[in-house]
Amino acid sequence: MNILGLSCFYHDAGACLLRDGELIAAAEEERFSRLKHDASLPLRAANYCLEAADLYADDLDYVIFYEKPLLKFERIVAGYAATHPRSRVAFVRAMQAWLSQKLWVRGQIRDALGFDGEILFGEHHVSHAASAFFPSPFDHAAVLTADGVGEWATTTIGLGHDLDLEVSHEIRYPHSLGLLYSAFTAYLGFEVNEGEYKVMGMAAYGRPTCVDKVRKLIDLAEDGSYRLNLGYLAYQHGLRSIDQAFVELFGAPRDTGADLDQRHADIAASIQAVTEDALLGLARRARALSGSENLCMAGGVALNVLANARILRESGFRRVWIQPAAGDAGGCLGAATYLYHTVLRQPRRLRMDTAYLGPSFGNAEIHEFLQREGVSYTVLEDDAIAPTVARLIAGNEVVGWFQGRMEFGPRALGARSILANPTDPSTKDTLNAKIKHREAFRPFAPSTLVEAASTYFDFGAPTGDVESPFMLLTARVKPDKQHLLPAITHLDGTARVQTVSRAQNPLYYAVIEEFGKLTGVPVLVNTSFNVNGEPIVCTPSEAFNSFAHTDMDYLVMGNALVPASSKRKLGAYPGRAQVHDGVEVVV
């Protein structure tokens, strides 16, 4: 049985292919279109998934979309009607998008794919919940989802057991933890649905001195539920997230590109602290309702790694599993798995122990590209790749690393990564300024051998040792190790850790292992292979062009070692993402 799952038209469109319950391929549309957070119908991603499964559209049994457009349209019309006439401009803009495109999903899918079979529709937060539970290692688990908004739901609690998944509790729009966090993202001068990571990173530089002010915007109940004070927010009636009352409470918003000061950092720390409290309350409620020791999480708010770490430490759950593509892209997987298991009652086979689900390129393809472009390179023997790269990194060289199948989800996990030396204090500034072209406060994440993780990092988990293969948890860098890892230890003493096992990625594991032999520290800096404003690279051409436009020292694609002296620019510099705070946040 072949099922194609699709998610799109909000942000981070994606596609996946299930064959007899096995996840064959999954990818975000942005990696093919090169438009960051591309929300359009994921035709390129879908075609990749079909190609990876050696299928044509006629071979599909079902195509399923991750939400119900008509129900979402009802919410938008009802929401703007309730706030008329203030919502008139936002309503007109929303209707232009919906009446021209977003309502006609079935027809667009048929036309784009040439598919005449059955097209089904899931429900947004059920899709998120399914993406968390069915690929997890648990037969029984509580499920928590939180994001901006789906059709009506913004936050849900449910229970998964074998083939069954029930969402039992929900919080509805306009009360939304995700939209509240995004309002602060916009207020602090960052792009909504992109800059939330920056707010998290900035929080470490501040003190939560504004928690009382933030709590004027959200009431946290003892049962884990919450309600927003909508008088401070504008997304329910306008094109912006915040209202004048918000500005009067917190002061003037930061202009995009303006200097960051202590006030901004303190506000970031405050909204982060309140968000953590809210999610922890929800998780504790899920624990009480379910009786399970296992928790699965998805939705864009589940990418808040600081909150995830607190949930692991303090919620009462012994084990937590988070969907690596927790945002909207992962909704395609949830819709497909819910159809396969809960609706069609097919047995569970999928355990998502890898996010390497995108395109791969063999050595022959890589060599052909380099030769065609006249790029000088050295071919490494297979057993020389890991020690060569480790030696370069130990010598403080920065290496672009392009190997195997591309990752699904927002994290680079050792397939499309930039690797550097975590023991050198200058690494962080070098990467931010000369390679990533981004703000100096942004932290970098470490990759470490799973066996070495407990030596350097403390997750504070009730079960002791923790695996974090998808880089979705922060851990405290142990005090006696922080001097060894200055490039990845954030100001608050934490790091967003990826643990790497030999089974998951043998070549990347070997590089970290060899680096450990050279330095005594089996940890690498791992940041995504892209520059600010562009998606993570997908193809050899994109990898080389990104390499050529930055100050990376070496590029390793497959077994090809390319030095900086071989750089030549193949195309325009990708530039930076435009910052905006628009109606897309809501609809």
Structural summary, described in words:
The protein has 587 residues and is of the alpha/beta class. The strands form 4 sheets. Strands 13-22-21-14-15-20-16-19-18-17 form a 10-stranded mixed sheet, sandwiched between helices. Strands 3-2-1-4-5 form a 5-stranded mixed sheet, with helices on both faces. Strands 8-7-6-11-12 form a 5-stranded mixed sheet, sandwiched between helices. A hairpin with a 2-residue loop joins strand 2 and strand 3 (22-28). The radius of gyration is 23 Å and the shape is globular. 55% of the residues are buried.
- What is the number of helical segments per DSSP (H or I, 4+ residues)? 19
CATH superfamily of the largest domain, called what? Answer: Carbamoyltransferase, C-terminal domain
Q: What is the share of helical residues?
A: 25-40%
CATH architecture of the largest domain: Alpha-Beta Complex
Low-confidence stretches: 575-586
Q: Tell me, what's the shape?
A: globular
Which secondary-structure class do the elements indicate?
alpha/beta
Provide the gyration radius in Å: 23 Å
Termini distance? Answer: 33 Å
Mean pLDDT: 94
Strand content: 15-25%
The tally of strands reads 22
CATH topology of the largest domain: the name is DHBP synthase
Give me the side-by-side strand order of the main sheet. 13-22-21-14-15-20-16-19-18-17
Overall number of structural domains: 3
